[in-house]
Amino acid sequence: MCERSEYRVAQPINATGRVYLTGMNRTALLGLLMAGLLAGCGSNVKFQAPTIPAPLLEKIPISVGLRMPENFEHFVHEEKVYGREQWSIDLGRSNAALFEQLFAHMFAEVTVVGPEDDPQLLPLHALIEPSIEAFEFSTPDQSNTEAFAVWIRYRLRVYDQSGDLVSNWPVSAYGKSQTTAMGGTDALQRAAVLAMRDAAALVIMKFDEVTHISALAEKSAAASGSPVELPADETQDTEVQTTALEGPQDEAG
Amino acid sequence: MKQVKQTVKAKFLILVTLTSAACVTSTVQDARTSVTGINEGESVVIMAKSYHLGNETEAKYIRCIEDNLARGRRGLRVIPHAEFVDSLFPWFEPRTAPAETKNLAKLMARPGVADKIAEHGIRYIIWLDGDTERVAGGGSLSCAAGPGGGGCFGFAWWQKDADYDAAVWDLQGLESAGTVSTDVSGTSFMPALVIPLPFIARTQAKACKTLADQLHSFIVQDETI
After folding, report:
1. Which partner for B30 in A158, B36, B180, B200 could form a disulfide, CB atoms 3.0-4.6 Å apart?
2. A240 in contact with B at a CB cutoff of 8 Å?
């Protein structure tokens, strides 16, 4: 048997052009095949942009600009789960869609400011600049449950009409979804959407309390000498009851 | 011939024994704190307590309770929880949902909330808490396959417990109407002699049926304390 193998090494290609493999070569090929298969053991998830339901709230009667970072249009998170598989999670423009919808629901007027635009030349009371600081997830194997969990940490910076930073607020959001017959990627996407909704809920509840953005309208009106009339019922009821309060901390100082 | 008959009878007895052995035991109880009842046009919504509080109630269990409450001639009008949560966004998200009935008055005072609840005709919100867990298991079962065929040999068993509580909130009086809880334990077996024979205890399904039936009685019956 061994001799036969040696013979094939000496004559790797026979008259018909077939390649013969030695035991060692066969093992190497199998190894390569296994490595290839393992390398291919990954999950690629591509998300659809979420739809945030129209919230039950009264809009804050100010005009804001929204300037989003480039990666909000195409955010990809890649992670190798230790000893398991490679994940590539393509959020697409989910983050951009989230904040466009959210702020359109929250403010009387929202202008999306491009990278070339000078916000100080626009009739805005404030400029909001969201960014994403972290995206993390856990699989059922890791958590020893039947659920995927997603954590997202955003940061919202608010600038006044003069371009001064007036608020710098980290927003941490969490979503969890159990695996279904539709498979893990469906549950992961659901968990991410729930995390985005969680962020939206926190922003709706706490944004004005933390950033005092509605006061910027009064400030800019005072500066221009024409006071802005706010509706009598504009006062935001910021005292809320929650099951889990995110400690709102404005890091602007 | 007699021997063959005896063998068949013995196998049948083993099968019956094992089938009955995949048993489920359940208890259900309620604690009423106010008078209940539901009028025509009024509805209920089933919600899971927040996962921010560590609750793990399965989405399929919520759907099961919804289906069972709505089923039949005397079924209740059930608003799907996803539709309810979306229509009242963001006030019933896991982070923002009221944790106690004392917060209901403030919630109802928020813009649009009372109108939306009235639009759905919601009389009761039922908050589910709990899950189904595998609590024990054992045995050994192995399978092998070869050119001549394959088969399994061994015996495996596992036990699942399904513990769920349902808190019923009455939106008419903005108060708690009481709680209903169920505790179901089921043991499943899988003996294998060439072919594995699963005897599965449907623990969660039983917990769903018992809780839904009791909730129906709890809400519909106009009992005084």
Report:
1. B180
2. yes
**Helical ranges in chain B per DSSP H:** 2-21, 59-70, 81-87, 104-108, 113-120, 203-220
Q: Which of A145, A200, A241 sits opposite B106 (nearest CB)?
A: A241
| A120: contact with B, CB 8 A cutoff | no
pLDDT band at A49 (very low <50, low <70, confident <90, very high): confident
Interface ipTM > 0.95: no
Q: Does residue A232 belong to the interface with chain B, where contact is any CB pair within 8 Å?
A: no
Domains (ranges, CATH) in chain A? 43-234 (3.40.50.10610)
Q: With a cut of 50, which residues of chain B have pLDDT below it?
A: 222-225
Three-class SS of chain A: CHHHHHHHHHCCECCCCCECCCHHHHHHHHHHHHHHHHHCCEEEEECCCCCCCCCCCCCEEEEEEECCCHHHCCEEEEEECCCCCEEEEEEECHHHHHHHHHHHHHEEEEEECCCCCCHHHCCCCEEEEEEEEEEEEECHHHHCCCEEEEEEEEEEEEECCCCCEEEEEEEEEEEEEECECCEHHHHHHHHHHHHHHHHHHHHHHHHHHHHCHHHHHHHHHHHHCCCCCCCHHHCCCCCCCCCCCCCCCCCCC
Among chain A residues, CA nearest to B55? A176
CB contact at 8 A, A202 and B95? yes
pLDDT of residue A85: 77
Mean pLDDT of A39-47: 70
Give the one of B52, B88, B111 whose C-beta lies nearest to A243's C-beta.
B52
With pLDDT > 70 as the criterion, what percentage of chain A qualifies?
68
Tokens of A201: 């809920």
Tokens of B131: 């899950």
Collapsing DSSP to helix, strand or coil, B198 comes out as: coil
Cα dihedral across residues A72, A207, A51, A88: positive or negative: positive
- Please name the residues in contact with A201: beta carbons below 8 A apart, sequence gap of 6 or more: B89, B90, B93, B95, B96
* A76 vs B53, higher pLDDT: A76
**pTM, whole model, 2 decimals?**
0.78
Three-state secondary-structure class, residue B137:
strand
Chain-chain contact of A56 with B116 (C-beta, under 8 angstroms): yes
**Domains, chain B, ranges and CATH?**
10-220 (3.30.160)
| pLDDT reported for residue B50 | 87
